[in-house]
Amino acid sequence: MFITAQQIFAAMSAIVEAPGYPLLQSYKSDFYEHDLESLKRSWTAKARAIWVVTPNGTHLNFIGHHPRQLEDVDAAVHSGYANIEIFSLTPNCIKRITAAEAIAEAKKLDFLISNGAHVTDTLGNTIAFMRITKTGNSCRRRTNVHYEPGLAFTGSPSQLVALRNIAIQASIAEVQTLFVAVDRITVGDAIWTETGLVQVQCQPDDQTKSVIFSSAEFENGAKGFYNQRRNCWSTLPNATQFDSHNARISSPIGSQVISLKDARFLVAQSLLCPTQ
Fold this sequence. Notes:
Order of helices and strands: HHEEHEEHEEEEHEEEEHEEHEH
Number of helices: 8
Mean pLDDT: 86
Distance between the termini: 36 Å
Number of domains: 3
Largest sheet: 7 strands, mixed
């Protein structure tokens, strides 16, 4: 059994480090750095992945979360090399498979998405409802992804990894480019992080209140929320509570109106990831 990322990585290492192994002769950082980091982020007790070893590097793709993951697997197994090895990775075993078998495995989904927003398990139980908000501009495509938990949401590592990967793949499909960054993933009143969900103290009516947000001010010195009463910028998440109409009238050039709930998430995220 390969329950942890370290356990599955050790088993993978034994394959490529075996005496006389003909593949992975160069670009070994693909495996020892990129694959290892990917395993640390996404390996769980229910993980499934396709691992391709070529003479020049490796390709590790997790599957079962979103239909777009099939495209990544297809590209990896048809990379043009005459000599490659393809493996199916699960907590139970590492199995050498063919390209056709890899494609078939990637087509099997453990999570389903209907109407672009309804995330369920294979039995149809609702895990979450997804909402993607486009941010950034034509040069820097970015998104924020919010999940409203359903009755089948448990917050297990397997679910959280799946929601992260779904957010990434769904953002690519929404923006229609591979070059999109997911700035923030939220689940209910919590922020998704690599180590789990971090709860943010929100009020029931936060979504109906508005603040003015300036990304330039916020990024350049802990400013960003406009306090209408004091006529100044403030980092306090509840700096300004007034309706959207008045906020738009008062909005300085280069800023935008966001909900008070989003403001609370921004402040919490800046504290969790001060360099982001």
